[in-house]
Amino acid sequence: MSQRGNTATGTTVAPNAIDEERILHAAYQMLLAVGMRRVTMADISRRAGVSRATLYRRWPNVRAVVAALMTRESAAVAAASFDMPGGSARGRLVEGIVSAVRRTRAHPLLRKIVEVDPEFLLPYLLERRGSSTDTQLAAIEDVVRAGHVDGSVRPGDAAWQARALLLAAMAFVLSGPIMATPGERDLLDAELRLMLDRYVAP
Prior knowledge:
The structure is a single chain. The chain is an all-alpha fold. 71% of the residues lie in helices and 3% in strands.
């Protein structure tokens, strides 16, 4: 497969990776503008400047494009939230989850989906885990395991502890806005911080 050079870094990037990023960026802009129901694959390919054949080789429909976009955004949120130097793993875990909740709750893409296309989220809340959830679980589990090593997190099964923590976080993301006004969100997040800390404390 041919590759395209990156003169700034001296590395090479596969053309299909460049196409994917361009497509996801175009889809993101269109979703924010009109919502998922009004976006078509033809719209995305036109906005991205790629052929529909290129688009369909990667994703079968708009929902699949949105799912890939959600996974990308979730990974970015997780990376930003848990990238904290120093301190105990428990502190990084608690603050990382609270940060992720705040970032996700205010994320423009999630807000647009909740407001315009909430049914898109239902399968991932009621029927099955998606790639976004798996990405979030992996990030949390890594810090839980670090907490087991440094003794700041109580012993237990890291995978199940991570699942319980993520379930709590999801409630604060999705139901938080109906429990607290924008001016009260800091108070709500303070309760989340206390709840998480007590759950993982040795």
